[in-house]
Amino acid sequence: MAERIEIGLKSGVPDARGRGVVGKARSFLGLGLSSCRTRDVFRIDIELKGREVAAIRKAFADPVIGRSAIGRLSPPPFEWLIEVGFKPGVTDNVGRTAEVVVADVLGRKLGPYEQVYTSTQYFLKGGGLSRDDATRIATDLLANVLIQTVAVYSPEEWSASPIDESVPAIHDDTEARVRTYDLSGSDDDLMRISREGILSLSLDEMHAIREHYKRPDVRAERQALGLPAQPTDLELECIAQTWSEHCSHKIFAGNIRYMDENGDEENIQSLFKTYIRAATEKIGENIDWLVSVFTDNAGIIAFNERIHLAYKVETHNSPSALDPYGGSITGIVGVNRDPMGTGMGCQLLANVWGYCLGSPFYDGDLPAGLMHPRRIRDGVHEGVIDGGNQSGIPWVRGFECFDDRYIGKPLVYCGTLGTIPVTVTGGPSERKEIVPGDLVVMCGGRIGKDGIHGATFSSEELRQESPAQAVQIGDPITQRKMYEFLMEARDLGLFRCITDNGAGGISCSFGEMGKYSGGAEVDLKNAPLKYEGLQPWEIFLSEAQERMTLAVDPAHIGQFMDLATRRDVEATVMGAFTSSGELKVMYGDRLIGLLDMDFLYETGCPTLEMEARWKPPEIQLPQLPKAGSRTKNLLSLLGRLNVCSKEFKSRSYDGEVKGLSVIKPFVGVYEDVPTDATVMRVEYQSNEGVALAEGINPFYSDIDTYDMTASVIDEAVRRIISVGGRLDRIAGLDNFCWPDPVQSEKTPDGFYKMAQLVRSNKALYDITTAYGVPCISGKDSMKNDSVRGGRKISIPPTLLFSTIGRIDDVRTVITMDWKHDGDVIYIIGVTRDEMGASEYHRMLAEDQGEPGHFGGRAPGLDVSMALTWYRAMNRATDAGLLKSAHTPTVGGLGVALALCALGGDLGADVDMSAVPLDGIMSDDAVLFSESNSRFVVTCTEEKASALEAIFEGLPIARIGTVNSSGRLTVSGKRGRRIVDADLAKLRKAFKKTLWNI
Amino acid sequence: MKPKILIITGYGVNCEAESKYAWELAGADVDLVHLNDLIENAGRLQDYAGLMFIGGFSYGDHMTSGHVFARRVKHHLQEELQKFIDAERVVLGICNGFQVMTKMGLLPGLNGGYFDPKVALMQNECGCFQNRWVELAFEQTSNCVFTKGLDRMPLPVRHGEGKLFTPDKKIFAEIESAGCVACRYVDGTSGKPTQDFPQNPNGSLNAIAGLTDPTGRVFGMMPHPEAYLFPENHPQWKRQKLEGALPEHGSGLQLFENAVKFLQG
Fold it and tell me: What's the total number of domains in chain B?
């Protein structure tokens, strides 16, 4: 029995958390309660004596505004009480902190199973709520029943119920057992084993495993060591994990027969090698700043003589669909460990995030088991806000992209930029080496059942029964402690090699590191556990968070462990690295797994054979409105989800910790217009900096993923150029999120989806090599489908292309907002009639009740022309000619001009008839076409001729002048006035859609 | 001689890099010392002229912000801290550091009562974390050594719990009359203290952004002067530059320079 302490606010103290519940119940569920007071409940599962519990109560509560009681605190008047706690085994970060206070009060260290558990009470009043209403508030707003418990009480029930002092502790005394899998059965048996074990192994893969275990040399060795002939559970689980799509990227590594629209065939052996890595290798021949690409947890590029940069973007989609908060906080805290585990370990400099979601206003049918997109959005933001803010890493980029095909699986991108000294303890910091005999050390959090099967699960489409174990909750504070310890240990030379524990837990990290020495031998009985009852294979596969794996020279282990103790970080020697070519797993003195490293990582997994057939889709056009004013259309465009201001939620992310920001995510007089790229310093002592940007546009995928890919790369590069980044120092990251593209019964359109993937890769090769922008790291997530409620929802093929550019001197960068009355406005680049899948066409199509009629030509890309414009832009910025620069993208020139005007709070008179065009075009196309490679820039009248001289022979046109009229006016063909809008109206249209949402 | 400043690190506080840079730029020497190392050897505190509780998320803001860090510091370091303050040293707390100092009772420190909490920094009125720039006005009559001679200053806030509050109105009157208010959130145009969001980002009573103890040497504030050391930190720096109004350093530096000047006598 535990001690229970309840803490509330004194009466008269406002309860902001409770007020938030009232607001959300109203706006989200349409329930009008009048008040909600909240309480924190702690249950202390620790043997306490005498006055100890009273001392703990005193230590828990704030004496100024709080009141507290042991047992029950008298409740405020209420009609319904909801109490939300955690299910057994779910990470309880507040409970963990409360244990620190208890330990101080008791004056001793707590044992591993002496724990504090928390829950929250919500006392609801008013609105005449029924029990069903209260339950809806509990399950649709306050709790996620996958990981949390909910209890609803009326006042009578509450006073009649006994005081709940139970705790969600796991008491599992199951003995450790090692089973073997019998793979001698039929194909049906094999697939049943795969399915029931959530192994996600294909029949081919099961056959390959069976054959491996049949090999005479394998049998002989196993017999000699006393291992069963058939694979043990740990072995099969480890193979499944390693070979999962999530870990081994089989689709990008497989063979594809691709047939284009003319019936011409081509065989591609590995998309990754053929297009992505080949492009980087080709570019790498001409540049000297690639330090480590595609081999480590993050890509490393040179920055200056002192430091390198490491950058990585990840996705955390499936867990975020099940538990948006837990999934996304794990996403951000997890990707922090990528640079932390890159080279000898990087310092963390900045975070980026981006989400692809269903509309928060979605009012269509929602398949059973899926959360409403608004709830997913709230939870995902909250998770990344908490994870990033608590880690002390500023956000520098963020985006949201809305399409209702993401209601099945939201995409949650999280990325981290790190720095590392060029040399660490006398050697190159990017090195990865291990000497046989070095100790295998795990440090950070303890191991529980959390996240078991995370990797295999994320390689499957989301099914109703997807396991709750796949949900984890990141703990930024445990990680922050570990991070600071690791940086200290690194600089003291206390470890030789480091990597993170991500998908697959130590089964992956021990093996990956074992590759450097040629093997490893570990004893799982050494593993620190959150609770008893874990089977050895579960220990091996657990994805419990905040853990890193290190190789420590035995000569340094004493010093290493001592520092860990002083920094309050748990570290455990799990075994030693070897050169045996094998991963040997013990449980105490019993051998329970032996895996041949070559079979596991290199030769064992059969190569996928896939097929792709491309046929351009036929998509109808919307009807263009009659000639006339487009002011209303522009206002509507500005308010659309994919254009409108995302500032409201963004303000809750800390973007300024470290004090290095130069161009913040929002710029302009009112700091309310998004910048094209953000810029920050990297070191306090230097004016050098980095620019970060990205491009994403899944809508063009509906026409051709080649155009989509070309466009997002162009956008991501152009944004860097616009703030003054150098074209020759831009690197990229590719994140492919695709629906399952392998043809099968459940994916009858696999040939087409695979062709989309091939075309995207072809474009990536073509454009990155032409621009000289190498991909330094990337990731793919290939099963973004949901089949819940009998309905299959697949995401549109989505490529996020993130860029990082070097800024030689941050004091010279350029922002997008207009600066002064009288400045001259230029358009650079050629506008074409490229309205296919544009924001404008999609808006017209939706308004006309035919949302599928968004056809037309998607934006193409003439790389050789674009390159000459970008080089000229670099010269113009170097010469200090520009006062503002902006890249038109979604919504075309119309939206671009509006945003520049809003940024400067300045009007303009613009004449579109001067815009350089490719052919004869309608006013609509000039205003709203999304042609690539263009800029809108301003300069003073005095510098206009110098600017024109730099762009001589290139498409540049003076289209107007900035003024202080407070209006944006645009004339089209034959001088017709097509836009005449008041800035206040434009601003309102831009900001109102997602304000307070 | 350069004054020596101790910055406590660990357990989720995270502004050590820029805080160190701020003091160094102002002419001080800085040691970053992990809380555990300080607890182990509490006496070393007396080797320093100044102590800083930095911003961050000590213990994740669990059980309300600053609560657990404050408890631990008070539990292990109360005597040394009292001695430190009595010896005419300076103590600075920014954001989470201000929360920690308030929770401990170091602020407002009315009548020399340093370990008896009087006010709380509680959840923002708007209900969520806010990162935005605000305009501050420093109290001209305050004897705070950090803010001496300062008038107005733009600085960023980055917090979820910055609303200075107590249900006890008398305490507020005492804080005001003892000169413990060091700075307030003001309307950028009128320069008047304001309760309106977002100029007052958290709904703090009397628009209070920072408190000093009656000696003027113990000071805490929610906004981040250490995040405005470079002129390019200001959101409008491009405009300031075009207008020839870009300062050489970010204005936040002035608070650290003031403290160093004081310590150098």
Answer: 1
